[in-house]
Design goal:
Layout (H helix, E strand, L loop, with lengths): L3 E8 L5 E6 L8 E7 L13 E7 L2 E9 L2 E3 L3 E2 L4 H5 L6 E3 L2 E8 L9 E5 L11 H7 L9 E3 L5 H4 L15 E3 L2 H7 L9 H13 L11 E2 L3 H4 L4 E7 L8 E7 L2 E5 L7 H4 L6 E2 L5 H18 L2 E3 L8 E9 L3
Parallel strand pairs: 10-11, 11-12, 16-18
Antiparallel strand pairs: 1-2, 3-19, 4-5, 5-9, 6-8, 7-17, 9-10, 13-14, 14-15, 15-16, 18-19
């Protein structure tokens, strides 16, 4: 027996819906896809600033901050699907997306101990458009209170918000954490050639934050003292390379519950959960990106781990279920 997922919407908050599974039918199945169980999205206009809690366990909580609303065009995707099949997942050639950052807060365990504030990615930083700073202010966090910024990778829509218009560091007390292989790629220390404009931005970011930069990490559990000192909380960096050579999924583990922040594993949720072999043109290594997407989404579905993504429409989170399709 298999479970077919259908989108019977049950209102939980204004503008949100959840998906409910119906009893499955026994069918001849030739292809498996994924679906995201979580809030729905539309192409309607969004409020000026969107900030919302998405996950908490023990002393750890996570907020989504929408840096920039937006959508993804069908034209940037390619893969084994025909143009006609791909177009079914878009409305007038567009799929809801946007750019999210995530604020992890770990409350102090001793009286008077300040919380640990960690951003995961920092958005575009585009003058007049970026809402990251307004979102942090709405969450009660000043720039100097951000302790670390974990980077899923170093594309401009994830690191631009780390610098001011003058090229100065926005978070004066923060250290940035990035995979070693990712840093090497953007600083010319690998055999691959990166986009020069993005490489210049990555270099500026690394230089601006060099005084507070922890050593680049290898995939695995992060061992930064500020993290390991927090009882019952761990962060693991999972290898999700493909989109970029050091693309990272961060697995949070707090009080026995897990959340995976998946970076750019998915660019257009409407398309890529259903057809995970479809890729955006931004993927550096397309076959590897497909493998990473299938592997991480399968892990999330199998272990019932909630996910949060940078381009999943706000609030950017949900659970993954395997959905089977009959191919004719």
């Amino acid at each position: 027996m298999f479970e077919l997922i259908t989108s019977h919407a049950k209102s939980v908050l204004p503008g949100l819906s959840v998906l409910h599974g119906l009893p499955g039918l026994v069918v001849a199945l030739l292809c498996a896809a994924f679906c995201l169980i979580g809030p729905s999205a539309s192409l309607a206009a969004e409020p000026a600033v969107q900030v919302g809690p998405i996950w908490s366990s023990g002393a750890v909580s996570v907020l989504t901050i929408q840096d920039v609303p937006g959508d993804m065009s069908v034209d940037i995707f390619s893969g084994p699907a025909s143009q006609e099949e791909r177009a079914k997942y878009f409305q007038a050639g567009k799929a809801p997306a946007g750019v999210n950052a995530f604020l992890i807060q770990v409350q102090g365990q001793a009286a008077g101990e300040k919380p640990l504030n960690m951003l995961v990615d920092a958005g575009f930083g585009m003058a007049g458009a970026s809402k990251l700073m307004q979102g942090l202010a709405a969450a009660g966090v000043a720039p100097e209170q951000v302790d670390f910024v974990l980077l899923t990778h170093m594309h401009g829509d994830h690191i631009g918000g780390l610098l001011s218009a003058e090229g100065q560091r926005v978070f004066p007390n923060a250290g940035i954490m990035v995979a070693r292989i990712e840093k090497d790629y953007w600083t010319g220390k690998s055999s691959q050639t990166p986009n020069p404009e993005n490489a210049a931005l990555a270099t500026k970011v690394l230089e601006a934050y060099s005084s507070g930069l922890p050593q680049p990490f290898e995939f695995g559990k992060l061992t930064l003292p500020a993290l390991t000192a927090k009882a019952g909380f761990a962060v693991e960096a999972l290898d999700a390379s493909g989109h970029t050579p050091g693309h990272t999924v961060f697995m949070l583990d707090a009080a026995g519950q897990k959340l995976m922040i998946i970076g750019d594993l998915v660019h257009a949720a409407a398309l890529q959960f259903a057809l995970p072999e479809e890729c955006a043109r931004y993927d550096v290594d397309v076959p590897q990106a497909v493998k990473a997407r299938k592997r991480i989404l399968a892990l999330a579905a199998e272990q019932e781990i909630e996910i949060a993504g940078m381009h999943i429409p706000f609030p950017g989170n949900g659970k993954v279920a395997v959905q089977f399709r009959l191919l004719h």
